[in-house]
Automatic annotation (TrEMBL):
<keyword id="KW-0456">Lyase</keyword>
<feature type="domain" description="Aconitase A/isopropylmalate dehydratase small subunit swivel">
    <location>
        <begin position="492"/>
        <end position="614"/>
    </location>
</feature>
<keyword id="KW-0496">Mitochondrion</keyword>
<dbReference type="Pfam" id="PF00694">
    <property type="entry name" value="Aconitase_C"/>
</dbReference>
<dbReference type="InterPro" id="IPR000573">
    <property type="entry name" value="AconitaseA/IPMdHydase_ssu_swvl"/>
</dbReference>
<dbReference type="InterPro" id="IPR015931">
    <property type="entry name" value="Acnase/IPM_dHydase_lsu_aba_1/3"/>
</dbReference>
<dbReference type="Pfam" id="PF00330">
    <property type="entry name" value="Aconitase"/>
</dbReference>
<comment type="function">
    <text>Catalyzes the reversible hydration of cis-homoaconitate to (2R,3S)-homoisocitrate, a step in the alpha-aminoadipate pathway for lysine biosynthesis.</text>
</comment>
<keyword id="KW-0809">Transit peptide</keyword>
<keyword id="KW-0028">Amino-acid biosynthesis</keyword>
<keyword id="KW-0457">Lysine biosynthesis</keyword>
<comment type="pathway">
    <text>Amino-acid biosynthesis; L-lysine biosynthesis via AAA pathway; L-alpha-aminoadipate from 2-oxoglutarate: step 3/5.</text>
</comment>
<feature type="region of interest" description="Disordered">
    <location>
        <begin position="475"/>
        <end position="497"/>
    </location>
</feature>
<dbReference type="GO" id="GO:0004409">
    <property type="term" value="F:homoaconitate hydratase activity"/>
</dbReference>
<keyword id="KW-0411">Iron-sulfur</keyword>
<dbReference type="GO" id="GO:0019878">
    <property type="term" value="P:lysine biosynthetic process via aminoadipic acid"/>
</dbReference>
<keyword id="KW-0479">Metal-binding</keyword>
Amino acid sequence: MLSMNSRGAIRSIDGGRFFSSFSPLLRGQNVIEKIVQKYSVDLPEGKNVFSGDYVTIRPAHVMTHDNTWPVALKFKGLGAKKVKDNRQIVNTLDHDVQNKSEKNLTKYRNIENFAREQGIDFYPAGRGIGHQIMIEEGYAFPGTLTVASDSHSNTYGGIGALGTPIVRTDAAAIWATGQTWWNVPPVAKVELKGVLSKGVTGKDVIVALCGLFNHDEVLNHALEFTGEYIDQLPIDYRLTIANMTTEWGALSGVFPIDQTLFDFYKSRLSRLGANHPRINKQTITELEENPVKADDDAYYDKTLTIDLSTVEPSVSGPNSVKISNPASKLSADNIKVDKAYLVSCTNSRLSDIQAAADIVKGHKISPGVKFYVAAASSEIQKDAESSGAWQTLLEAGAIPLPAGCGPCIGLGVGLLEPGEVGISATNRNFKGRMGSRDALAYLASPEVVAASAILGKISSPAEVEGGAAPGVSTVKTSIRKNEKPEEEEVAEEAGKSSVLSGFPEKITGEIVFLDTDNINTDGIYPGKYTYQDDVPRETMAEVCMQNYDLDFGSKTQAGDIIVAGYNFGTGSSREQAATAILARDIPMVVAGSFSNTFGRNAINNALLTLQIPKLVSKLREEFPEKVPTRRTGWKFEWDVLKSTVSVKNEKGEVILKEKVSEVGPNLQAIIVEGGLEGWVKAEIAKSSK
């Protein structure tokens, strides 16, 4: 999305090159901005990257998993034959590893053959979950920008890397050109005060955060975790917290590069040996000598705090990460458990397996409960077997599954049946994700999951040995919105941008107001059409917004500008949510905020978007009666050259004038070429000349 410039900067043009009109010394950069700066390409000399900027990024690595074959087909459909940099790409098989059907095995063979032909690093089914492999093998490494075509690439933030998800089109673009685009998000600081009490884990922290800050406080933000005692948080706890920043709504969650992390890598080095290509004495020494740290005057959009000493073993659910309660409270409710799970990229590392084994040792899984366990990788399973933890779980009655995703994503054996209750150490408990929509799913730490499997009901670990569950305490939290630093603007005539041939200098139209927040992709484009590949443009235009408002079609016309509420485009990642709007000849969408996935799909398909919360507020003030689709008579104009938006009411009065982010040449080129795929094809054509 083209969001308002977080610095209020006016950009200037000099010899066709874009640069900020402010001195880069006016304020420092946070960790997110510094990492993006390092992996941005074609930046003008002296240009410092800040939140709100659109940049072209060349990530250190890109991982795809079972979706590798669809990405490969898209890559081939672009006319590409050879990947740009096979050292940048990693392929792993991890989601449907229990599926031995010929169809799935054929897909897996296709992926392996493609990786071999292209010289891409490939990890077969059974080696482990892709995110864990990326960390174990050093592809995701502190201070790097590493992306994956999977929403849980946030996990890499646990080791101080900027991990963020991309969609399949982005992955194909990186394969073909080595790069894609990114809009640097607002950055929030999450301050972890105090230290954890005995028996409280990283999973309890993120479960509490998701449940206490449950009104989109961090939606589409990048997070930086800080705290005086943060060095006492083990790396496995950090990985768990970073992993579930996805469910919290963030695009990434990054922990500091500190002594605890250095020690982690030195221990890892002793296992890998001296000749590992990515984790070796040289890379660790360089990391110690040049860790990425925020400048003292770095800006953060907001600061959230939680007192770790007030957190206790906690549980999310049922069927929502936005509901959390102390395990002790739910224990008193005697919630019977049918299935328990210690699987996934969230909590299946060695320390998690050992913690669960410590709980179940000397006990048996409760009759009527099935307890499924899977290590995050084959390496972790070997370590758990060597330590005895794996055998302890099996002797207690746990059911082993292969290293992989499995029931976490609703695949393979052990799914929840109608009416069942499950408690899981995974990251998502959305209705129907782990099986039946008529089941109840809860999330918790490995310790709480193990205790619940033994006692047959949601329980606190202390209860396993006959102790009492701790009393319910109040978790202490706070949130502060930070003021943006004052920065001096340059003269207006110096603030003009340039426009590439084929890109409009101005976009105008009447505002049609959709006064609703959280309009989802099913509302924009009905799901029953999603997997029909032959839907004509006319039909797409006809059914656009049909599930949102049946009157949308009769109330809108070509050239209108849609203005919607907040979190527009939430839900599934279907690209047709963007292309259906374009099929109606609506050139752009303005909203208070967008789902990140919709925002990427929009630009990837050449649909322009702007994020202007003030306009939504003014429309709601003027039109207090809620109507799903309303023609307003207000005229919208976006002056691309001046990077300004102005809105006039039906009387011709200017009621809003806003400075917005410049549309840089990289973004313009994508739109001019009809989207990211068109841009990639153009780049391939250039390189073949």
